[in-house]
Here is the input.
Amino acid sequence: MTQEELPPMPPAPPSAVPLAAPAPFVAPTAATTGRRPSPLASGLIGLVLGAAVVGGVWAITAAGSGGPETFTLEGSFTLTDEVVSDGDDGCRGQYDSGYDDIAEGTSVTVYGAGGDVVATGALGDSEEDEYGTTCTFGVAIDGVPKGEKFYKVEVSHRGTLQLTAEEAENGELAASLG
Here is the structure.
């Protein structure tokens, strides 16, 4: 038989190994390119993630913290001796008078019935009477927890004044020194 007399060859059999699908496109990243993100990009990513975490924590605690209800303890504190102008439309205790610790910003501490500190704040704006003999400060202490039988309020280190829960919650603080 000659070559021309041979029957045609059958088509090639299919390969026993299936062809692989083309690999999907993967965008280059710092891991694949060896480059790191810029400090600005890293900072912005950190800022966004940090804000998200803080916001999430705030939302969870604000929605169901179950913490005690609070109120603002309000009233006044009046110094009746050794009063001087503070030079800024207010007044204060005279220097070297024994009352020089009494001024706008002086600490105010609120204690619960058990003697523990439940809130802190400071004396607010002051006003001198027309004769220059008394100086009255506003007091507004935020975040005082409700539920105590009574409260004690101390200005500076001058001792405490006791208020019933009702007096404290109704803004009836009226303390004086001098």
Remarks:
- The first strand starts at residue 70 and ends at 79.
